[in-house]
Amino acid sequence: MSVTVLLFGILAVVAVASGISTVMSRNPVASAMSLVLHFFTLAGIYLTLQAQFIAAVQVLVYAGAIMVLVVFMIMLLNVGREEQMRENPGYRTIIGTALGVMLAFQVGKTAFTDVAGRHVLPPGSAVTGTTEALGETLFKMYLFPFEAVSLLLLVAVVGAVILAKRKI
Amino acid sequence: MGENNIVVSYLPLIVMVAVGFVFGLSNVFLAEILGSRRNKTNVKLDTYECGMEPVKTARERFSVKFYLVAMLFIVFDIEIVFMYPWAVKFRELGEIGLVAMLLFMALLFAGFVYVYKKGALTWD
Fold this sequence. Notes:
The complex is a heterodimer.
Chain A: H1 3-24, H2 28-48, H3 52-77, H4 91-112, H5 125-128, H6 131-140, H7 143-164
Chain B: H1 3-9, H2 11-34, H3 64-88, H4 90-117
Helix pairs in contact in B: 3-4
């Protein structure tokens, strides 16, 4: 067993555990912190897949900025412990269980279907994840989507101001 | 590049994460072990607020103004993230890259001007 597989195993276990902890925590702040740990383990998994830039961005943007948004949201709504706002679960449990079973079935089917070479990274992937390779691809092949992103971000800026500002 | 070389190149990162994790955890447990178990009065167990007496709970609703700041931070954070792949390939991409980035920046600068003119950066 190579070191990469071992690392992936550790990261995967922590990722699943922190994911479960995110959903199961009664305290929303504890949930948010579990999500931070989850984002970090995802960044580690990206590293094992040779996606260095995505790994760094995962930590900077998700574990940093997006989590600020989530924590602010908890502060804004002043969400207390979950017991206080629990209502009759009923149909939610049924739908949730059904969707969970479907997901488990799909994951199991994919995991046990034998696809040749699935566990091997495609050749050349050791360089595709670097910042340089990404810049090359982004500014040559995907130039238009890149410019469209700026428009999307512009819409987000205007939307944030319109929604959250009292006096515009 | 062999598989193990990659792991070796990230060894400092792994060590740093491990040390940080152990340091944080050990502080919590060492405080429990080494700290005095006696004299746990109500005053000592109270929330420490730089010597001030705590007046009320901190779990109250915050203004939506904080959310606006966080939202604007994320947007411009993502803008900066896109500059990294451009910056490392700046020379190879040449004029086309420069023009593409200028257009990208111009659209977001328009957003910045909008935010500034609407007074979203002031705390009113």
